[in-house]
Here is the input.
Amino acid sequence: MILIPLERKNDAEVPEELVCFLKFVKADIKERQKDFHNEYVRKLQEFIKHIKKNREMEEKYMLFEELLKEERETGRKEGLQEGESIGMINSLTMLLKNFGEVPESLQKRISEEKNLETLNLWFQLAIQADSLEEFISKM
Here is the structure.
C-alpha cells in the first residue's frame, strides 16, 4: 500500500503532474469539473463522465424495461378481463334465449357492456327471472 499525503507544505517538492492529480483527488465533485491543465487528470475526468453516462443509460434502459413489463402486465390483465367479459356476454345471451327470442336492442346493450361486475349482476338477475320481461325490468 502506498500512502500519498494530500496536504503538502511545498508544491515545489512534488512533481507538477502529481500536484495536479492530488488537487483533483482532494477536490469536491463540483471542483472536479474544472480544467486542471493536466492531460492525465483530463483523461480521468473523461473516464468518469463516460462511466456516469453509461450508468445513466443503464438506468434509463432499466426504467424502459420496467415500463415495458408493466405495459405487458396491464395488457395481459386487460386481455383476461376482456375474455371474461366476452364469456359472460355469451353465457348471459344463451341463458336469456331460454325465455325465447332476445330482442336485438337487448343483445346490443348486453354485448356493449364491458363492466364485468354489471355483467355478473345481469347474469344473476337472468338466473332468478321467470321471464325475459322480468329480467329487462330489473336491469
